[in-house]
Amino acid sequence: MRYGFNHLSDDEFLVLCKELNKNKGLLLIGAIRELPPKLAAFAEWRKGLTYMPVYA
User: Could you name the domain of life of the organism this protein comes from (predicted)?
Assistant: First the structure.
């Protein structure tokens, strides 16, 4: 399943970043086995960004 993230507002971007970081933490402690597909896709998409909005 493909997710399009190109139309995210800065607020939506930050929410996804925070969710991704939280899930990465759960992954590290073994609480979850893998990232949810949407967050995994978001992580891949984010790697390709050349411009990163300023973090709040």
Answer: Bacteria
48: DSSP letter: T
Burial of 39 (0-12, 13-18, 19+ CB in 10 A): buried
Q: Check residue 7 and report its DSSP letter.
A: T
pLDDT in tens, the chain (56 residues): 457 898 899 999 999 999 999 999 999 999 999 999 999 999 988 888 755 554 43
SS3 29: coil
Which tokens is 5 given? 């993230």
Which residue reads 């800065």 in tokens?
10
